[in-house]
Amino acid sequence: MMALNKQHPTRLTRLVTPQAERNPGTRLVVRTPNTPVWPANEWERFDRFLIYGTERGTYFIRKRKLSVEEATNARARIVEDGPRAVRRIVELSVAGRVMTNETCLFALAMCVAFGNEAARTMALDAVSEVARTPGEAEAFATYLQDLEPACGATHDAAQGVQRGSGCEAVALLCAAASHTLVCALAVAR
After folding, report:
1. Contact 131/105 with Cβ under 8 angstroms?
2. What is the pLDDT of residue 113?
3. Higher-confidence residue: 187 or 67?
4. Cα separation of 36 and 128, whole Å?
5. In this structure, are residues 83 and 119 in contact, taking their beta carbons and an 8 Å threshold?
6. What per-residue string of b and e applies to 156-175 under the rule 16 or more CB within 10 Å gives b?
7. Of 42, 133, 135, 136, which sits 20 to 30 A from 174 (CA to CA)?
8. Rounded to an integer, what distance in angstroms lies between the CA atom of residue 84 and that of residue 116?
């Protein structure tokens, strides 16, 4: 026992890397002075938005209002590949990897508002998997109503068609889907 105590301090030495130097073997990028960050591609930033509620590397404890201006990368990923975005939203929400489910609901509403037809259909089908409580269903309907003005102002570059009336139909369909979800959850209790 005495031999183990004598060896203990020598076994617990640490390698020390100064704060200003890069740790050997890491990929940290220094964007601003004294602030190294991990590089992330667009889909990793989309995951970061879903998990933490922000696309940046900073997580805020205080609740912040979700807006399209804060989710520019998420919108670009939804426009780029809407079905992949919907699958990722459902995967993270069902696995419980998100800090709050509101970001997934907001991203689903963005898929309905800004995505192509396949993304809209998948997003509306996924509402029942992501919105598991009546409050979440109401939050989804609220997010969709908040996004309706932005959706009406978008221009579909692939088809060259203004999508104002389509968004209203999707909003009505989504409201019906959230009402069905609320009724189903009330019956289950």
Report:
1. yes
2. 93
3. 67
4. 40
5. yes
6. eeeeeeebeebbeebbeebe
7. 42
8. 12
Q: How far apart are CA 114 and CA 112, in angstroms?
A: 6
pLDDT at 54: 82
- Name beta bridge partners: 114: none
Angstrom distances, CA of residue 109 to CA of 39, 62, 106, 120: 28, 22, 5, 9
- Contacts by 11-14, CB closer than 8 A, 24 or more apart: none
DSSP H stretches of helix in 40-163: 42-52, 72-80, 82-95, 102-114, 117-130, 134-152
**Phi (first) and psi of residue 30, to 5 degrees:** -100, 105
Can you give the residue ranges of every domain in the chain? 36-55+63-154+161-188
Structure tokens at 81: 């590949």
- For 35-54, the pLDDT digits (tens) are 666 677 899 889 989 998 88
The model carries a pTM of 0.66
Handedness of CA 131, 141, 149, 126 (dihedral sign): positive
Q: 155 in helix, strand or coil?
A: strand
Amino acid in position 157:
A
Lookup: tokens for 132: 């598991």
Cα 64 from Cα 47, distance rounded (Å): 18
Q: DSSP letters along 15-35, please?
A: ----TTSPPTT---EEEETTE
